[in-house]
Amino acid sequence: MLREGQVRIPSGCAISGFINKKGVRISGTDIINSIAIMKERGNGLGGGFAAYGIYPDRKDWYAFHLFFDDIKAKEDTEHFLNQNFEILESEVIPTRKVSSIQNAPIVWRYFVKPLEKKLRDTEKTEEDFVVDSVMFINSQIKGAYVFSSGKNMGAFKGVGYPEDIGEFFRIDEYKAYIWTAHSRFPTNTPGWWGGAHPFTLLDWSIVHNGEISSYGTNYRYLEMFGYKCTLRTDTEVMAYLFDLLLRRHKLSVEITAKALAAPFWSVIDRQNEQEREKLRAIRAVYASCLVNGPFSIILGFSNGILALNDRIKLRPLVAAQKGDFVYVASEEAAIREICKDPEKVWMPKGGEPVYVTLDEGVVV
Ligand SMILES: NC(=O)CC[C@H](N)C(=O)O
């Protein structure tokens, strides 16, 4: 038997993403090439993409992407959707046959809007209604998983290397102004279709390299607000934490980053009084949102991207800029693969977000 030190298990996960700040949409070929160059960071047990701007002709409708284990799960979900949503379209998500992609579930998408009557009866905002519906399907309908629920955006993911998953989902045929991608080496679970990254909710999508040791604390906290963690991967909590802090609690990106990747107490103690009180309050109020363990993440949303490292930068994250494009990835090579001569390349500091939005006035 090989002993420790004699065997190398390549692990890491890879993340990559970019935004065009003018909202120019480009094909998925680049993001596939970028993530594929980091092949040895994954092990073929998960790959996926998030793309913004892909459904311009149906951009006012929520695009629900679903995995179904069987026809019964699909029928049960459609019964639920018919009772709660107006359905513009129901169609199979187009795929190609790829020999390495096996045991794919049924992949389907629906373009939906909550029924006015349901919104009135439940007194929920449209977005809360959608979130609660996603949680209901994922936790109550056996064999059905909503893995994407935003407008004019979509996640595509599964078990396999990302370049094969990209081929499978015909990623090259979509055009987006923001792309993110993930190659997975699962840390705590065997790797299944729902557990691949990105994790999404509404327009938020997240790809992650690392391991969240505060998963239990984070998910118990999220449960109090009605979120249900059903996808069995630690990263899922991050998608819901961002939805809670940014959308529901309306915190700024800066404060949200400080809640998730909080500065050390010793650093807080060295700040001036006003800053110290602010940082103490964030740590006290949002103690259960603190994400412990190593991480580098890219959060995508309709207006931009946010890349963030844990406070001591235990996972790699590089950023670069050229013209209207900003890139972030686990490795510089992944950026140079699709941007030969960046104007600027930098290593973001731990806990300091790289936050890039569409230029003012850009309508997508
Ligand atoms: N190797 C990694 O970075 C894994 C990311 C995450 N913990 C997962 O299981 O998917």
TrEMBL record:
The yes or no answer to whether the keyword Nucleus is present is no
Q: Which InterPro entries match?
A: GATase_2_dom, Glu_synth_lsu_1, Ntn_hydrolases_N
From the record, give the transmembrane residue ranges. none
User: What superkingdom does the record give?
Assistant: Bacteria
Q: Which residues form the Glutamine amidotransferase type-2 domain?
A: 13-359
One Pfam match, given by its short name, reads GATase_2
For this protein, the record's CDD domains field holds:
GlxB (cd01907)
Q: Which UniProt keywords apply?
A: Glutamine amidotransferase
Which PROSITE patterns does UniProt cross-reference here?
GATASE_TYPE_2
Q: What is this protein called?
A: Glutamine amidotransferase
**Organism per entry:** Caldicellulosiruptor diazotrophicus
Q: What lineage is on file?
A: Bacteria, Bacillati, Bacillota, Bacillota incertae sedis, Caldicellulosiruptorales
